[in-house]
Amino acid sequence: MEDVALPSAKVPRLTGLKKVEGKPVELLVHGRNIGDDAMLIVHLTNEGFELKDVVDMLSTSELYQQGDVVKLITGKSVRTIRRLLKEDEPIRLDPQQSVIAYQYALVLELAIRAFGGQPRAEDWMQKPSTYFHGQVPLELTLHPLGFQMVEQYLVQLIYGVYP
């Protein structure tokens, strides 16, 4: 009997985006200089990031354009985002989704710095880590405490304080 390849399920992606140049956090906050001002970040996330700015941030990363990651970050499916982007009115994420979008943007930036480039950073982000007891850093970023753990680990790598 001959082996027949089964059709694979097509993974939804946020395709057709024009890659926007810039750092993920800068794109997310629409170029505002936030520095280390945590209160400004609280204000911006309470206000809700504009969906267009979130999509610009997503466009910087092949990993972040995958359907399941898009849904983790925005709380919306790829199909819904495409539909919302066609509307004339600006759409904002709610505060909780805005916080999650910020966490993902910051982790991507820190990982790029820590690993010396985006391909290596994205590779690390999607593989189980022994440091995190086999958990995937990308998935940990969704949870506030997981995000803190990933952020702390990356900062330690950047500044040479190896865990």
General description of the model:
This protein is mainly α and 163 residues long. The chain has one domain (24-158). The chain contains 9 helices and no strands. The protein has helices spanning 24-28, 38-47, 51-58, 67-74, 78-85, 95-115, 118-125, 137-140, 144-158. Helix 6 crosses helix 7. The longest helix is centred in the middle third of the chain and has 21 residues, at 95-115. It is globular.
Describe the protein's topology.
Blueprint: H1 24-28, H2 38-47, H3 51-58, H4 67-74, H5 78-85, H6 95-115, H7 118-125, H8 137-140, H9 144-158
Give the total of beta strands.
0
**Over all CA atoms, what is the radius of gyration?**
17 Å
β-strand percent reads under 5%
Count of all domains: 1
Which short descriptors sum up this protein?
single chain, 163 residues, mainly alpha, 9 helices, 53% helix, 0% strand, Antitoxin Xre/MbcA/ParS-like toxin-binding domain-containing protein
Task: Give me a quick take on this structure.
With 163 residues, the protein is mostly helical. Helix content is 53%, strand content 0%.
